[in-house]
Amino acid sequence: MSQESAAEFPETSFEKAEIGSARPDMEPASGMPGLGPARQVNLRELVYDQLKDAFMVGYFAPGDYLNLRELADRFETSITPVREAVRRLVAEGALIDAPGRALRVPPLRRAHLIDLRQARIGIESMITEMAVARATPHDLDALGSILDGAVSKNPKTPIDELTSNRKFHFSLYGIGGSPTLFRFVESLWLQYGPFLNLIHYTIDPDIRGSHKDHRRIIAAARDGDALAAKQALVADISRSFDILDAYTQDSAD
Amino acid sequence: MSQESAAEFPETSFEKAEIGSARPDMEPASGMPGLGPARQVNLRELVYDQLKDAFMVGYFAPGDYLNLRELADRFETSITPVREAVRRLVAEGALIDAPGRALRVPPLRRAHLIDLRQARIGIESMITEMAVARATPHDLDALGSILDGAVSKNPKTPIDELTSNRKFHFSLYGIGGSPTLFRFVESLWLQYGPFLNLIHYTIDPDIRGSHKDHRRIIAAARDGDALAAKQALVADISRSFDILDAYTQDSAD
DNA sequence: TTCGTGTAAGATATCACAAATAACATATCA
DNA sequence: TGATATGTTATTTGTGATATCTTACACGAA
């Protein structure tokens, strides 16, 4: 963690849990069908979830180094759960094994950005098409109310924006009904997260356009127009990456 | 490991290493250009690679339970590296956390099969299209020689077939040049592997058709005909899954 | 049936080790 | 004499092994 932007981890755990529940479960709930999942939380998952949130809101910057003992101190656990959480992040591409056994957030590279963008467009288009095909009117109402809630919320911090943006997208993707693709999208967002750090929470100007795209997606879904929905989605994703264009002159590691 | 099909792990490590090297690296080689990367191999990766191979050739069956201590004994390590390797497999969807802290190969479910199939078709089509756009004549010659080598090899065990099939596909996908999508495909194949166990290495009759599809992909790539390449690919993937149709009456867990 | 108890297995903490890096000191050359 | 190179030591940090803890499940007695 060479260049952290904040002294503390963002406190988005509760939001995250809510988003996580949108994940389409392939397996039936392990507990009683009606009751909540009541999943037993172990330290490993606790640490992972917090790190995941940290990544998604751009807490870490590309190129940052992570330190197991430091993280363990921060989470007040031993390094064992941290190690396992970190290993999972490596598997998901959010971290890489750097030379010298070091753990590093992948540094900014133009090729990486291009790769991520095309993967996001391809996979999220697929899942959006599936969502349009499967969405019930009730689903779309729920999606709309996420947007409504986002605009009504008054103290709109940039993290609030990020969170509600994430909530919209993942709710949409949950409707798609593909746990496999859903997982891949999570991995993509995890990899994209650190780039948010570069723009230091100064994305407000573009949020409006994002909201418009989201509305267009819902409207297209109501018409069953998958193509229009995908076009709006691609516009939304492209905007996210275009903001980064100014930073894309491959910074020296 | 409730119902294992063999007493020992398949010895495909060397094949695997070769395939693994096809992964398109985003980072430049860390060492001297001419010299080998000399990457230090740790136990965690050793165990992971072997487990990965075991999954890919159908050593484990859907629904099997894994046991950390048993695996540690088998690999002659402590449970720590095994644990980390297993955790990675969980992250990749090859294993799931089952009730009671158990580790389980996902049981066969029709919905899962359908999901995997559409994800494979979608993502591998994308990457194939990219490969067709980027492939050099030399690349295509190399691909062709993989097929030639596969047919010439005389003692053709089913595992040989699987290995060369895998080699062809991943070489093709490596040409695509997308590390992100490449990783997703690996995850998909990892999830598909256990289904191979169900058909107990009796896939010979269909291998011929597979070879024909592979030839068609190469030919289409030579013509720059991405659509034709994708059609052949989809036919190939569909065949893989069609073989499983007979087993798809959702076995009781 | 119900409650308790034993056992098995994963989860966590801790210890020991090795590799890598940095800091410092010493040597060599211009 | 000053600057660069090289060797040595100390510290950091990930890795692997082991001990301990907790939980889930099975079995048996009341």
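Residues 42-44, 77-81, 84, 99-102 of chain A lie near DNA strand C (CB under 10 Å from a C1').
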